[in-house]
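Co-fold these.
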Amino acid sequence: MATANNRVKIGILGASGYTGAELVRLLARHPAAEITALTADRQAGQPLGAVFPHLAHVGLPDLVRIEEADLADTDVVFCGLPHGTTQKVIGDLLEARPQQKVIDLSADFRLRDLDSFAEWYGHEHWAPALQGEAVYGLTEVYREPVSKARLVANPGCYTTTTELALLPLVEAGAISTEDIIIDAKSGVSGAGRAEKQANLHSEVSEGVHAYGVGRHRHAAEIEQELSVAAGKPVTVCFTPHLMPMNRGILATCYVRLAHDAGVEDLRACLAGRYGDEPFVHVAAAGVSPSTRQVRGSNHCVIGVFADRLPGRAIVLSVTDNLVKGASGQAIQNMNVMLGLAETTGLEQEALFP
Amino acid sequence: MATANNRVKIGILGASGYTGAELVRLLARHPAAEITALTADRQAGQPLGAVFPHLAHVGLPDLVRIEEADLADTDVVFCGLPHGTTQKVIGDLLEARPQQKVIDLSADFRLRDLDSFAEWYGHEHWAPALQGEAVYGLTEVYREPVSKARLVANPGCYTTTTELALLPLVEAGAISTEDIIIDAKSGVSGAGRAEKQANLHSEVSEGVHAYGVGRHRHAAEIEQELSVAAGKPVTVCFTPHLMPMNRGILATCYVRLAHDAGVEDLRACLAGRYGDEPFVHVAAAGVSPSTRQVRGSNHCVIGVFADRLPGRAIVLSVTDNLVKGASGQAIQNMNVMLGLAETTGLEQEALFP
Amino acid sequence: MATANNRVKIGILGASGYTGAELVRLLARHPAAEITALTADRQAGQPLGAVFPHLAHVGLPDLVRIEEADLADTDVVFCGLPHGTTQKVIGDLLEARPQQKVIDLSADFRLRDLDSFAEWYGHEHWAPALQGEAVYGLTEVYREPVSKARLVANPGCYTTTTELALLPLVEAGAISTEDIIIDAKSGVSGAGRAEKQANLHSEVSEGVHAYGVGRHRHAAEIEQELSVAAGKPVTVCFTPHLMPMNRGILATCYVRLAHDAGVEDLRACLAGRYGDEPFVHVAAAGVSPSTRQVRGSNHCVIGVFADRLPGRAIVLSVTDNLVKGASGQAIQNMNVMLGLAETTGLEQEALFP
Amino acid sequence: MATANNRVKIGILGASGYTGAELVRLLARHPAAEITALTADRQAGQPLGAVFPHLAHVGLPDLVRIEEADLADTDVVFCGLPHGTTQKVIGDLLEARPQQKVIDLSADFRLRDLDSFAEWYGHEHWAPALQGEAVYGLTEVYREPVSKARLVANPGCYTTTTELALLPLVEAGAISTEDIIIDAKSGVSGAGRAEKQANLHSEVSEGVHAYGVGRHRHAAEIEQELSVAAGKPVTVCFTPHLMPMNRGILATCYVRLAHDAGVEDLRACLAGRYGDEPFVHVAAAGVSPSTRQVRGSNHCVIGVFADRLPGRAIVLSVTDNLVKGASGQAIQNMNVMLGLAETTGLEQEALFP
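Predicted complex below.
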């Protein structure tokens, strides 16, 4: 599994997007990893530094087209392709190289139910057999199956942030599953590097708005996992908002307490659940977590507050959408899959200010 | 009431803050107004242009200390002093000049219940008799009493944005009053120009967080007005968040529909209520309002969406916190008090990008 | 020239860009203007409010394709089309309607020398005869010819900002023309609303860089005007930088004093030149102008400082690139062309913060 | 020199500022360092995580007052106190513990000439004897004396960025020293975390301006080093501008070529000088460096362009003001002083976007 220099060989498909760049940034300092293949169709032939100047000083192979990539020696392939294109690519890849470990950062393998996938993504699943073996890569929850997986479906950024806050509470029966309301705020890097008018600086800065109200795809993913935790179908209100910033997600979750629970019970439940986790932290009472405190890091911080409305509570959760919400968690999953220490390459503190 | 040049004479107490500057910006182009006095204790003796260079080209009196201001001829005094200092100042002012019309932008006269004021603001009311005559200046709701008022308590920025969205729905019985959840997002200018570490650029940009969770003072104001509309006590969940931007408020309101109401009923209720209003608009179905579209203007735009949670809806409302949320609405109230056309001086379109 | 309602009829070609929207914002409150035609090819058939929600409440004709626009009754046509497409459009327009007054916001008619145009813009001039009559619309300098013009070439944003600062000094012989160095900083709205990766929020915010170093097209325009003022060819160093903001240009000009001139002479020269101008102002000694003080306004503010290098000075000039640098100055030119008071519709103060 | 666990013991005086936090962020992952003392007068008694939540998960001693700090065992003390307070503190420190290695991030020991210090900083030097032994810590230039120093004066952020670009060119005689013009742009974190109105988000975002025009203290430092390189007194024009961003400095340097030099000579000179340096890079011809590409990293990137003005060139240099411009270079100096590999703890890539 390791190379002559004792490092794991890594291929990154779709390296010209922000999640691709973030994988490179983090893997460049990962002591057990070596990037051996980078693909990007439109920029094929260029060094990555031409596309991402901040990575110009990392020793890397040039970008190639995906069909030209030599993946024969790679131990792990990260797939950062757009939604909808990934099922076929990974299908072909695993047919050609069945031993390949694959971590997919797209949404293509996140929904276990094929009908649900078709409903939310507008086309039938193109690799239904593979879906059956894909493991949902919320590391703190699925660590054991991830360790044995060949194909990991890395969770979405909104969903990671929300699920880390709510899954233990639902599982413990500490909150009602009837009317969970998630008001989420995200920086614009989650929308990727594609050329869209809506993501221009002039259109994003100095203002906020909600989008996908009542119909954002991450709702399906959140509901899938909350339903597992609850042991019954759960529907949520999930409303994402675009923030005038690049990185960071804050999920403000409005929940109803189970009839015998108090706010301190929620905090205790979360603190107990995450006490040994290196990347998930529960803020002290009265402390409101900020996305600034996790910018660039793989940490998630969760705060719990009493609501003025009797019997309700507010749970706040923050991550960096490109790290714990994408590339950082993907590397965390890789570490688990390879039996490495889970924090390897992910120990960086947040960058503030 | 008018001057030799047929203009209303205006005094502004506390002109060195952002709401003071915004009053000057708008009144400078008000065809019926003339600013005759500006006070600011620490900057007394200076022209306003030394404090706010963007206003350097407006012909204005110099800043003076409040006790040196000659208010004898002023028809209307706007009071933009910090919370807690205003009750005494206005008390003295109205004792000396009982005919003076006063519009207060602080929170000092917004809560009708003296005990509630003491509870939320930490000290007893220092002008309880005046409180009795103060009119809450949400213009679209209190137009008639504002027209006859001597003392108007201009609403807060969060509260204006929220109340315009929710009051008609509560009044019409279209939504439940049991669990109204308001997730509000504001630019930092609402925090004023005072020197606070928390408001430095390095501390505000590129991140978001909630503050005052479960205990922000604007909850009291919102509950006061919703209770009037409902005819019974209403408690709300109100959670403000600081946005990395200067201007704008978005209130995302999560509400439960009355058992016989649908989302279209909410939109119809709001559209009917505001059909003739020049400053409040209901967005078309599917359109999510953005704070960018009201930046610098006195407009409020409200959108209504179905929730995935059955029986619930999401109501989104945007304003510019310094205009409709403060100085613009104050001038709107002045226009009503003086019998001027209500839109006078407030017709500017928003500035975008 | 005026309509039944005594208003000038206005057509705007290319209304879906930022300069188009800015024309609408300003003309909406212009007491003598009425917008009767708006064109935008890709958005034809939509109301402008669908493209620019902040203008949804202005009564306006729907967008049409340029060939469908009824310009028969328009008194003034503003042309906000991309560079390179405008020469033919205006050529056809003036052939069909020779009395039409046209104000072009593109660069297509700014360079008087046809060879220079071909060199900088990569193709021959497609309306060379028209170029001969086009008047360069730097209002404060060309007011008289503008008043008689049929076709006005509105100056660029960088050039307006720089030329207002330097032209009087060169004309007066107060500075050397040998090594004028202009370090310019602009917000991103100057790059327009087109979908470009380089203008995404993630690519623009939290960073600065220079672009077009040594070869930006506005250098040609600046040199053209400085050469006229000097009575001899002038070459300049002009280096634009992209700022992480939307609006505003600051030109920091490093100049060598004529051997008998001092810094105070420069300030006196500028103050004398602009003493009666409503939109150009000279800052007091020691005051450094900020783009914030002109955001959204048609003002230009110029400051003059002594340099540590003996015999040199620093001249700083700020404008809003979309107002004095584009649409505001275009309206100023319209006012001059129509014999209206020059400030009509342009009296708004800047929006701060 | 090392502790039982084989790590160097580190004390940080003034840990509650941004440079202090940045030292902690970087040292937390430094394999040979251990932070054993942190001081901050106003926050004494608190954990650093209460002041900087992004550092809450680093194992650290609590903040103490400077006089209570136990520095007996520390190998290296970093001093991040405000300018003017440091000379006495370090004087006392080195009197008590003459073997202590000290790296000062303030300006107190940067100017070798005591008269120059008094002129620029407004008071006489309070530790003139120590000044004589202080080594100016521009690592790439003073590596040898730094390796033997007891007291290193870490350079300023503007000066580091500028000097790395210009010192080799001056030393090689490739550019004239007669009229060097430096137009510098900095993020606001360079101004620190103190509560100042000028640094509020509302005052900094969405605008730019120059400050300290003709009289910024970093000019003295730049001139000191350029004079050494030139072997004669050099005066420069240095004009800093405040950018609406947190991190990053861009120095745009306008220089006159020596009569026999071309632009390629400048690039070759710099490339030769920095070919073996791990942190200083010369961009390819035509590539304009951006502060985004060094955000959070210890890198400096320099670009060279021909000017339109014959015989002149433009040299662009970027750093992160808190890393290579402050705390990163301080750690680089520490590594040199201790004989560690110079890049230890500083290998992180930049964070983008």
